[in-house]
Amino acid sequence: MLYESTRGQYGRVSAAEAIKLGLAPDGGLFVPCRDVIFTEERLISMAGLSYQDRAIRILEEYLGDYTREEIAACVKLAYSAEKFDAPATAPVRKLDDSLYVLELWHGPTCAFKDMALQILPHLLTRAAAKTGEKSSIVILVATSGDTGKAALEGFKDVPGTRIIVFYPEQGVSEVQKLQMITQEGNNVAVVAVRGNFDDAQTGVKSIFADKDFNQELQNNNYRLSSANSINWGRLVPQISYYFSAYLDLLAKGEVNRGEKINFVVPTGNFGNILAAYYAREMGLPVNKLICAANSNNVLTDFIRTGVYDRTRRFLKTISPSMDILISSNLERLLYHLSGRNPEKIRQWMGSLNKTGQYQVDETVYKPIGRIFWSDFASDSDTLATIKAVHQRYGYVMDTHTAVGMRVYERYREETGDGTKTVIASTASPFKFNESVVKAILGEDAVKGKNELELLEVLAVKSRLEIPAGLRNLDQKPVLFKNVVSKEEMTEAVRNLLLKS
Ligand SMILES: N[C@@H](CCOP(=O)(O)O)C(=O)O
């Protein structure tokens, strides 16, 4: 399988090259050059397999220049019992006869990002070897909270790599921040940015685009790559869990052969839902992909109108990982739906850059309406949903998952569609415990307590164990205190790599 850039100004590359580069040098995103289709028979034959074996079947379709043994070795290292505290890796919980929750947060950092970032370092180091890379790979990450910690955990102490994570100084939860600034490892760095996630992501993308700086890095034996979902190696492992969820339902007799289901995906950078789109295109029986946004509802407006407009106030919400107005992965969807038209993509992305807006044409807008449905949930909706779900099902969900749940309720009210539905649960409730405790126990329960004290409160109330990765965070030394403006991000990278 070869990969091409959505902007059409860079040659086709192997999977290893695409993963090593992260972002295409013309500013585009790498996408597979041909479609991958799983027949119904093939799908059914995977129902009895473990998560690991299902993942191998998906990955080998896309990573043609890796042997099955190499993929299997990467999968085994990534999805082991030491790393994931659920035997099923990504278990599906049943809430009622037509509603299920796919828990994607049983990895070391308690967010769905582990599903990809536990395997990406193995894929990337092999990619470097396959492409004869001599330089150290420097992973630059922009995070709104979850990707950063998951990438640090995945890449810490990986030989031949360095990792630098930029996060919005005021834009992540206390737990998320502590997880990152206490990160140990001989190749890691964490930098706060005065600004929001979009500033951090735009800053990272402009470092990738800065030819002189990249040359300077090359002269010092460094090559940049990415661990955000702009990197195909981040996205492709995420396809596996949609297959796995469906196969679990099939294996348990919850769905019949060929029966379609809906997926609800809380999303900000459009990576998670794009992985679900690929799964659907590959033949997974999916009816609707329900895109759940928070009050930064740029994606909802886009899906409803075909107009992408980021010229609006950036809001800080209680689902901070989704506080994003520039959703990078939408570019891949538009590329596919426009019939792989790089001119159109350049036009729309150019307009987004210049004016903050673009409008897609009918050929793209129509299939979007057929495949996707979208709505958003405000913070008060989110809190009310956590409480209602806890009362109704005894199930505790985090704020991002609750956004998904609320949007699903609206979907049902509006469409009457009773298709079985799986909500992608993107983070452990312990990670956003302040809002979760407030929702379930009321305002007074959080008064005067920090998020680390609230872990205990939530553990008692939910009768769940505090995940290992979140315990004792306050006793770890803070190792990173650097704060920069978005204009200083390149200099921060230079200082970390070339001057220290
Ligand atoms: N929600 C993300 C933002 C970056 O998204 P990614 O999927 O492209 O890594 C975060 O938590 O950092």
UniProtKB/TrEMBL annotation:
This is Threonine synthase. Pathway: Amino-acid biosynthesis; L-threonine biosynthesis; L-threonine from L-aspartate: step 5/5. Its cofactor is pyridoxal 5'-phosphate. InterPro entries: Ser/Thr_deHydtase_PyrdxlP-BS (IPR000634), Thr_synth_N (IPR029144), Thr_synth_N_sf (IPR037158), Thr_synthase-like (IPR004450), TrpB-like_PALP (IPR001926), TrpB-like_PALP_sf (IPR036052). It catalyses: O-phospho-L-homoserine + H2O = L-threonine + phosphate. The modification N6-(pyridoxal phosphate)lysine is found at K113. GO terms for cellular component: cytoplasm. Keywords: Amino-acid biosynthesis, Lyase, Pyridoxal phosphate, Threonine biosynthesis. Its EC number is 4.2.3.1. Catalyzes the gamma-elimination of phosphate from L-phosphohomoserine and the beta-addition of water to produce L-threonine. Belongs to the threonine synthase family. Residues 3-79 form the Threonine synthase N-terminal domain. Residues 93-329 form the Tryptophan synthase beta chain-like PALP domain. One of its GO terms (molecular function) is threonine synthase activity. PANTHER family: THREONINE SYNTHASE-LIKE 1. Signal peptide: none annotated. It comes from the Bacteria. One of its GO terms (biological process) is threonine biosynthetic process. Pfam families: PALP, THR4_C, Thr_synth_N.
